[in-house]
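HUMAN: Quick job: go over this next protein and say how the chain folds.
***
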Amino acid sequence: MLRSLRACGTLLVLCAVWCNYSLAQNQTTPATIQVNLDKEVGAMYPMWAWFGYDEPNYTYMKDGKKLLSEIAALSPVPVHVRAHSMLVTGDGIPKLKWGSTNAYTEDADGKPIYNWRLVDSIFDTYVKRGMKPFAQIGFMPEALSTKPDPYKHSWTPGGRSSIATGWAYPPKDYNKWAELVYQWVKHSVDRYGKTEVESWYWELWNEPNIEYWKGTPEEFFKLYDYTVDAVKRALPTAKIGGADVAGTGGRGGTKFLTDFLTHCVSGTNYVTGKVGTPIDLISFHAKGAPTLVDGVVRMNVGTQMRDIQKGFNIVASFPTLKNLPIIIGESDPEGCAACGMVTSPQNAYRNGTMYPSYTAASFARKYALADEIGINFKGAVTWAFEFEDQPWFYGFRDLATNGVDKPVLNVFRMFGKMSGKRVEVIGSRMYPLRTFVDSSARGQQTDVGALAAKDAKKATVMLWNYHDMDIQSPPEPVAVSLKGLKTTSVTLTQYLVDATHSNSYEVWKKMGAPQTPTKEQIAALEKAGMLEAVGKPQKLAVKNGNLTISTSLARQGVALLKLDW
């Protein structure tokens, strides 16, 4: 009886949420989007073309190679890839949040043994696809760790086990560590050529302000100095930086990043004894924080935006650093890609349309924040890849499952079709930047917004219908008015991600959610995972540079209007 009452109570709450939402929608006029092609606001630079993951050994496995080929193909420019554990000791067999390459061991006399076989397998996979490593230097090899036992973590999703074991500790010999770094960069130059390696970015470690680093901040600054010196000795033109701190908007993250940059600018270099340490890029992390509210997932995009805003402002506060490239080394709705929705039910947004709509709405605001603060924003790493040989649609934060693309990947395919200059967008239902950053997207109405760009013979408009509450609704009308078209006619192609388009998850559910799908079912799922165009391209007349396109967009839907002439 008690269980039934609780179920009824939850149902009543959900009905109330839905009714309030429906009432708000019915009281509003159709959303309008105005696109002014004559007013440029900045370049449509591909800061979205950056991806990363914990388990480096997935890179050269069957589904890993397939997904990397698709990621490389969606962008007109090289995609950058970052992976953890590139120097970790082990057998090369991946587990969740674990990987290894066995790049460094020692003989009985303590002499280094370098083995680049698995490191090469990873970077070869990238380079052959025209991708660029965002090469993470870490973590500590077992033979160099000051506390090597236990070395391999025992982490499991939803468990209390610690992830920070011997690989997270400082080196017992900084000179041996530096020699390892030197040999890796030198080997990379020998294998791929100086010009190729000059086009990469290198960075040290991951989230040294939390459990990924078991030393002190000063020990990390020392490690950075030795690492930079080694990289520059092997390749003086190499680009390296850091510090990929976690929770940049929190007190601890703010302090660590500020102290790190202060050390680089005016601290005493542990290697040279002089003032300062070279830094060619600055990186930090930004994450959201979804929760469950009466059984419904509620996202928190504002938390992620405030992390980004704080990181941008910290960099801007250093006059000698503010023009350096900034890379958000991990930029995601929350912090644990390997925590599926079974053990972490607040992560149930990942398979369907919430993840794509969150991505579209948040990436547009990343551009806007960079414009407002005036920094050199280079890239935002989406920390999502794939998990080899795991259950279908388990709810990991990934781009594909068992070789089938999930809806979120199609938003990046949309981004890949946008180029040229970003232009002014005014939306009647688009949340102002300040509201989006300070209060997230939690008002009565959804955030119906757009990001638009123009090129020589093309204009593109990405539309989304986003709200933090994971509730869906039928499509509603959206009118898109474009001004400043330098042509008398255009060909319109519309792409869509929603419950019935570009959505392998909904197709899988209609199949009965099989965990052992047939070849025919897999083929159908692969087709459903591709970006789908709605109908056939349309020829439209442009009058005096103006054009209005009437469309519709469901809550959590994302559309791309592509106009060619």
In short: Confidence is low (pLDDT under 50) at residues 1-27. The two ends are 65 Å apart (CA to CA). The first strand starts at residue 31 and ends at 43. The longest helix spans residues 2-26.
